[in-house]
What we know:
Blueprint: H1 13-19, H2 27-36, H3 45-64, H4 68-82, E1 86-87, H5 100-106, E2 108-109, H6 111-125, E3 130-132, E4 139-142, E5 149-152, E6 158-161, H7 162-172, H8 177-181, H9 189-206, H10 210-223, H11 228-240, H12 244-257, H13 263-280
Parallel strand pairs: 1-2
Antiparallel strand pairs: 3-4, 4-5, 5-6
Amino acid sequence: MDTSDLFEFKQDQEFSKLLHHDNYIDLTTAALEIARDDQPDLVFDSVHTWIRQRASELSSRVALAEDDRSLIQAVVECLAKEHGLMGNNICYHRAEGSYLNHVIENKQGLPISLSLIYMAVGKELGIEIQGVAAPMQFILRYETQAGPLFIDPYLKGAVYNEEECLIRLAELTDLSKKELSRLLKPATHREIIIRMLMNLKRIHEEQQDYQKAWNVQRRLFALSPLSNAHKKDLAAYSFKIKQLSLSIELLESCLKSCPESEWNSIKLMLQKAHSELAQWN
């Protein structure tokens, strides 16, 4: 593969919008486009239909909600209680916990994938539920006149006010509540997709599935083409899956832009790639 082909995602219309710096995309479809890397025959319609069905179930309940908290509790009751969506630690080690079709089927997933489902159902209802890339755990934010409410889909849709949310996050991190409060702003669509990709990269690396890790890293590099770290990681995965010419091209590009402190490690990687390529030729 030539480096110019790394940025081609012709089948992925929503993901491609991010490459052109569009601020808003259909997050559900973009997440499914990522899942399709691992499931080439994935049909998106079943996920979109499930989301519309949940919105239909909720429409009258939402309309009759007495206040904002009651409205959010109705969403939680439907998705977490009636349809059983929740977190499971095993999802941190399996890619299926990031794929919306599997999350819906298995009723468990990572915080970010569960959150995307809540956001999608909310969007169908005309309710803006926003993602928050909080440290350690992705959560949701819903604005009210009395202040924001936060939802933790991983914990069966636990609902917090801001103070309660800060206490919960402080238990998971070493950060103070003051530091955490600055991190509770809504995440951009780009930030959400990058966080999802980073989760998948970690899982594939842990499982030593370097082809799948390469697929994810290619997307991360496409989103941040000036990042030497992403370019170097893509070169490393390219070496592992025997795309040696690509690995060499990426490493040579790294040498032109990386800090001098990284030269030795990159030159060593280049030496190994050239040596391996010579054995193939």
